[in-house]
Sequence to fold (561 residues):
Amino acid sequence: QALLPLCMHLGYRFLTSSPCRFGHGQGGRVGSTLLPCTLPSASRCQNPRTLPCMTPAEMEELRKKLEARRRERLTSLGVTEVALNTSELGPPTESQGSSSSLRLMQFNVLAEALSNDGFLTRPVLENADFNTVPTTSGESVSFTTMLEEMMAAKGKETELQALKAKYSTPAAKQNLAALVDAEARRLQMLLLVIHLGCPDVIVMEEVDSFTALSQGLSALGYASQLPDRSTAYVPSHCSGHGLAKDGEQSKDAFLRHWLDQGHTFLPKLGSTSMTMRIRQARLGDSLLKAAEEMGMTADIADMDSGKAKLKKKPFIGLSGGSTTLLRRAGLESPESWDDDGIAIFWRKDRLAATGMQAFVSSSGLPALLVRFQELAETKRSFKVLGTHLGSGSAPTDEDDRLAKQLLPTDDGLLSWIRKLRQEDPSEPLFLLLDANAHPQLRPSVASDANVWQSLRESLGASVWDDFFDATGAEQAGAEKADAPVTTNKLRGFDSDQVKKIGSHAYHLIDHLFYDPKAFALAKHGFGPKRYPSKEVAMEDLLPTLSMPSDHFPLVADFNWR
Fold:
């Protein structure tokens, strides 16, 4: 009963032989299963930026309901009315343009298990001032003054330790917990998708709650499973699949299982997200005890020191899966935990997924490909590839990305791109990714091509070509502002790594590359986000209540040539 109003808004009926409320033909009921209207999707409501079978007024009603739920959740956490009002995302601010164009979105959503990572954030709770921060002495200091103290002490561990003792307060921890609350962030992600005009394809990285996110986006008219598949999603760690114990045989078994399910989510097995879930739940000792009782200690523990110690990736290739073990250790819903990975969603009123493919390199790099065909009369096809490269902003990190993830013959991202482009040249390819590499970053040998140059050359063009040339150098422009950025976060005083306090990630590391012979970039649907300087950017740090990640989304519109 609680779901009926939402289902009705999405064009579903409950009574057998009841016509679609938009006059699109007969649907019905099989048991308690609601069936959508039977008119082909391409013939449904044709406003390219509204939801399937929804008028703008109904979409706005749905947006308000989601916003009311977000406000209710954040209010329960002590967030102020002012902060709620200023963080509300309104209806779509602009249309995509032509109904034949494509809007693509790339977004690193910040894994839930990694979200409470000591970010420096603005106060949003009751009895707090947005422009001041509390101290352990009970006094308040302006946010700007605190930033100045942090930057002056950056790299000086003794001084940073003293500032940590001054600014690491219970109120600061409670503030960050409210800002990264999982339920509120999921709701804000849905509201962000609506605000950005419901892009045709969404590629997300660091997804570690695929079940919840896919259900939410499904209510907005998105699909994330091949149309000829119906198996419910089960996290791979629950099924006992892995990539470590049996090499290629294990990898092939996992990929066959993944393809059989048909869900367009590719987890990175044994990810940091899973490690953090175990640590945050303080489940390590309970897992070891449960494993001992079940005779599984050797499967999940290392004995090198003579004492059982939980492996870094305890569930990789675990015979029979982790479900029974986790429940015995005290976790009621093991399926609620998942590795983080890459997910691809699409608007099912505009596109049909015709196939998918996964790549996992010997270095562990995952990449997910989905093939699409337009539902319009044109029936044009294209491919979308999503991936997430290794982290690090130093030249040696760029060396690793190139040597281990891009360049390996037959086992690297560049070789995958070449094969995908050669197998069907008439089906153009988009590459959307968090590269953890910005155009200006050079490898150790400065004359070598960097990640930006290598990927841009492999596809032909980037959505950032107005701001960077083919070598990654900034283009000269009249606007007095820094180059665009897709992340703007600062390690705060609640970080467990004192040496990293004050580290400012302020770069353009999220990318969309495409074939300029097949598509023309029409415009950016968000931003680009630019600041006059780093100092000004530090006054607007991520994550926030309005932007539920440590990244900004990348949204771009394309016209077919």
